[in-house]
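User: Here's a chain of 387 residues. Predict its fold as tokens.
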Amino acid sequence: MNIAFVGCGYVADLYMQTLGNHLDLRLLGAFDRDGQRMSAFASCHGVKAYDSLQALLEDPALDMVVNLTDPRSHAEVTRIALDAGKHVFSEKPLASTLEEAQALVELAAAKGLHLACAPCTHLSEGVQTLARALRAGKLGRPLVAYAEMDTGRIPAGEPGAWRSLSGAPWPAKDEYELGCALGDAGYQLAPLVQLFGPVRRVTALSACRLPEKGESVGAQPGAPDLSMGLLEFDDGVVARLSVSTLAPADRSLRVVGSSATATLGDVWDFPGQARMNPVGSSIVHRALRKAEAWMAGWAPGAALGTALVSPKPSTMKRTKGGGPRLDFARGISVLAEAVRGGSNRLPTSLTLHLMEVSLALQAPAGSAAQVMRIQPDVPPLFDWAQG
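Assistant: Prediction complete.
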């Protein structure tokens, strides 16, 4: 599948880190309206720089556009690419409003094109293996989940000085103005929907606790930097989700069942393994619980117990740079599989559902519970995870 990047900013370098894992993808080149930024990216990675967006879209060899522009440009660039007859994979969010996102989904369907959107954390080996264990009854009946998406005290880390491998600045202004839920909640929501099905109702509270954080980068204050939500699923399953750019980094997902608890230490860690502790009152069980309580004081998300080993060990590698072991390019590869007629593990109904829930999570204090209207297709597990 021949692809091209539109947008050569910070996140584009993260996609390049794992693109080499997916031999089904061939990067033809990239375009950015900032010529210096595009040249730096092209030079760093040895890729072609297109003269214009039109030149990129008119390349007869191009199959799919990967939209890595700033959030305000996502919808416009995606619409232009679809109108040009190209499949599109977009960074999140798909659009600024749910109505705008729905219009893009309808446009893609009308043109017979495939459209998908990040995140793809439900496609990690860790989440897929956890879903496999849950379906096999290893945890008993699922009761409750605790999902953390605290990205660390970002304002205290001088993010205005952060640079990617090719020298792109971290988009602090965009991130602050977007809000933490619309920007980051999907990393946990996608795994939760994979595990439990659609979110039926959301009770949320959000706030902007550090309105001054964006002054140095010219960001308008007001978007939430803290969102807390109670998510209700079928069969009485409830999840508590916290999202913030304030608390110490914690991206763990814990699923409590009637017979065991499983903890995935970091949903950004694609090769990571969940650990399972059975319910019990023996000396061993009590010792494990005490040890975990002690560990929680210095390592949020850490867990002891039996590792849920994936039947398909991860072979993911990062070619350059550091950062989390998150395979950004996996979503592109999965969409390419759907284009070729394979299973669709990034359906547009899931994208719309995650956006609807994320918007609900940004509700201010005192808001009533919100019933979710969009019912997504729950993605099928990978073949290796269905056994």
